[in-house]
Amino acid sequence: MSKPQRVLVLVHETLVPPEDTRGYTAQEIDEWRTEYDVSTSLRAMGHETRVLGLGDNLAELRSTIMEWKPDIAFNLLEEFQGIVTYDQYVVAFLELMRLPYTGCNPRGMMISRDKVLSKQILAYHRIPTARYALLPRKRRYREPRKLKFPLFVKSATEDASLGISQASIVYDAARLRERVGFIHEQTTSDALVEEYIEGREIYIGVMGNERLTTFPVWELHFGTLPEVMSIATRKVKWDRKYQQRHGIGTGPARDLPPGLPQRLGALARRIYRVLSLSGYARIDLRLNPDGSLYVLEANANPNLALIEDFATSALSAGVGYDTVLQRIMQFGMAYDAAWRDT
Fold first, then answer.
1. Are 109 and 118 contacting, i.e. CB atoms less than 8 angstroms apart?
2. Confidence band (pLDDT; 50, 70, 90) for 165?
3. How much of the chain, in percent, has pLDDT values that exceed 90?
4. Element of type H or E holding 113
5. 22 CB-contact burial (10 Å; exposed 0-12 / middle 13-18 / buried 19+)
6. pLDDT at 287
7. Is 204 within 8 Å of 265 (Cβ atoms)?
8. How far apart are CA 245 and CA 233, in angstroms?
9. pLDDT of 144 strictly over 70
10. Band of the pLDDT at 125, cuts 50, 70, 90?
11. CA atoms of 116 and 127, how far apart (whole Å)
């Protein structure tokens, strides 16, 4: 796909980026950094690009597809109608419209967004993941007595560390009940309770549909934070001042045991396949001090900002940002959607 394409970039209606970043604060730029990086890079690469902000209906998307006739949709949506699990329906709509799109297919998005279903599938394939219990919202609270403290409490569906803080790690029954109630109320979702896994937080980027490529092993470095606070809270992931104050950042995973990078790459590709992912994804794992590995989650369509993990790990392997975007579009054009067989 070397010739210029007509690319429809799909973003949330509040994240339509400006033409340039002049006059905006760093905090404002962070809100739409990915959308800006992708759209401006695609234009610089010679593609005819139109950014469409989607709110709560698909009428404008349908009319734009019918009138403008894009070659592909570059999907940067992380929710639809304010619901994180509804972005898969937009992708399904694109399939109904027979328009190629970037990133994950609807089945893989549905599975990976559902953390409990993902864990059930991983367990079936004997891929290690933390023992867990689901505590549904709007049901009577029942303490998961088979799990061992400390426990980690998070939303069963939300992404981007929503609802995760140091208080997410609980050490007794009273704190557990309190934190589950917090997740139910603050995220309006079910609570997923897992046995807390100590160790290094490891990320691996994966690209492809059938033949898969993995990027170098990346790690979230917690800087000066004490070991007991080594979890990817919302502040750790998104608060720039907090990151600078504590020396938090991501980068190559150093001093890994011999053979472990290859083992991690093979495991990431296996996870990608069993969860029906396509396009590109980031697999998050914990590396225990004893060398054992546990899957935290698989992130379909991870953050594509120029400075974020996926792009920087690709660059460390000699794959520049423009090449990453071009390959993502190639995988989208080549994905074997069911409508191609009709």
1. no
2. confident
3. 73
4. helix 106-113
5. exposed
6. 93
7. yes
8. 15
9. yes
10. very high
11. 14
Q: Of 84, 68, 92, whose CA–CA distance to 5 is shortest?
A: 68
The structural domains of the chain, ordered by start, are 6-103 (3.40.50.20), 131-195 (3.30.1490), 198-334 (3.30.470.20)
* CA 140 – CA 127 distance, rounded (Å): 31
Neighbours of 67 (CB within 10 A): 7
Does residue 206 surpass a pLDDT of 90? yes
Q: Are the CB atoms for 168 and 174 separated by under 8 Å?
A: no
CA distances from 252 to 37, 109, 112, 219, 317 (A): 22, 27, 25, 6, 11
Q: Of the candidates 58, 41, 130, which has an alpha carbon nearest to the alpha carbon of residue 97?
A: 58
Residue type, 191: A
User: Cα separation of 342 and 240, whole Å?
Assistant: 49
Give the pLDDT band of residue 3 (cuts 50, 70, 90).
Answer: confident
Tell me what pLDDT residue 5 has: 96
